[in-house]
Write a structure and sequence with these properties.
Bound molecules: ligand MV4
Number of domains: 3
Number of strands: 22
Shape: globular
Radius of gyration: 22 Å
Strand content: 25-35%
Strand order of the largest sheet: 13-12-9-10-11-14-21-19
CATH class of the largest domain: Alpha Beta
Structural class: alpha+beta
CATH architecture of the largest domain: 2-Layer Sandwich
CATH topology of the largest domain: D-amino Acid Aminotransferase, Chain A, domain 1
Distance between the termini: 57 Å
Amino acid sequence: MFSKVLIANRGEIALRVIRACRELGIQTVAVHSTADSDAMHVRMADESVCIGPPPGALSYLNVPNIMSACEITGAEAVHPGYGFLSENAQFVQVLEDHDIKFIGPTAEHIRIMGDKITAKETMKNLGVPCVPGSDGGVDTIEEAFEVSDDMGFPVIVKATAGGGGRGMKLAKTRDDLEEAFFSARSESKAAFGNDEVYIEKYLTLPRHIEIQVFGDGRGKAVHLGERDCSLQRRHQKVFEEAPGPVIDAKTRARIGKVCADAVADIGYAGAGTIEFLYEGGEFFFIEMNTRLQVEHPVTEAIFGVDLVKQQIRVAAGEEMWFKQENLSIKGHAIEVRINAEKLPNFTPCPGTISTFHAPGGLGVRMDSALYDGYSIPPYYDSLIAKLIVTGTDRTAALARLNRALGELIVDGVDTTIPLFYALLDEPDIQSGDYNIHWLENWLEAQAEG
Ligand code: MV4
């Protein structure tokens, strides 16, 4: 096992990793920008190193400075958390070249899944069901028409270098295709330096269902069911739950096995998420995330596992503790993302926290790096806390969410907390009857009064 791990991240996820390290008896190194000198992750780690000025590009994304921090502290491994360098194949390559372990998959697996065309081709060949569409990239408008006419409209043009909603253009009808194709290409070129695009049948009212997988890097892998992450605004998830309200045990076992077998086949190491659109009772692969996700706690809650500890164990070359036959679901979990943002427009609202009080009690988990008097810097993501509740069933989890929100105090900045009270009052949320467009439609209806 490692004796010292460096955490190349900040906020609640840095604390999450520090906690796992502490339980494994591993020393921790925090890195931080000058804006984060007083941050909780710096206080909680055994050691800390300043790696640059406030902007993420100069600090948490600064590979040379993070490598220096590893060298001066003698860290043997790096946990990247999510965001920042977590899916940066180049960073992983640099670590590999310096004999420092990356707690996550290989640079090669990150590269394959980072290119959305390669990812889809790989998954398709592994037997994972994919959205119907072009076979690989589409280079000309003639080819775009050919593929789309074969499938029928609407279609969506996606950037191979995109993902997470960036670089996509919808063509509702044939008349929209030329504009969609050329704007997807030029925007992709400008944003990613890569103008390759592909085309898919556009699914109109799907749910976003993602399967948690975990591999040992030596050809063994398991799945840990699904999360329904359909409730989102502008590709930012807001409310996530596990199990999915519309997925039954048989369906879970079937798609879960497909996913576990796929990642076992490629020798994938550590935690991964295979994202699907789910419509008409069918799964359609869209992307794979090669990192620990923000919403991983809902999976931990219902399976009773610690995904971060397992990531560290597998990276250290230990056996994976998971066995599919020992993994079973107990209850229902919901996560809400509390952002320092002002409703109704979700305007970022950095500032000083005058009072912070975390809810507690049975079935309540609060992952947050807040404390009384903490000043939220304006440079980073506005996520300030994740509230995760677990109940014996979905109804109990919803009641517990309402109860826990009542105990939570975040004073001094505006937050998205009022949104969750409003959602709990909605019959569609109570019944689980929502899709990827539900929240944006609802917010629009609220705005119209
Ligand atoms: C789609 C789609 C409909 N049809 N692909 C958006 C994020 C990226 N991961 C994939 N996305 C979508 N791909 C086809 N063929 C609709 C979306 C989409 C979406 C997907 C998941 C969660 C929220 C979403 C919001 C808008 C669009």
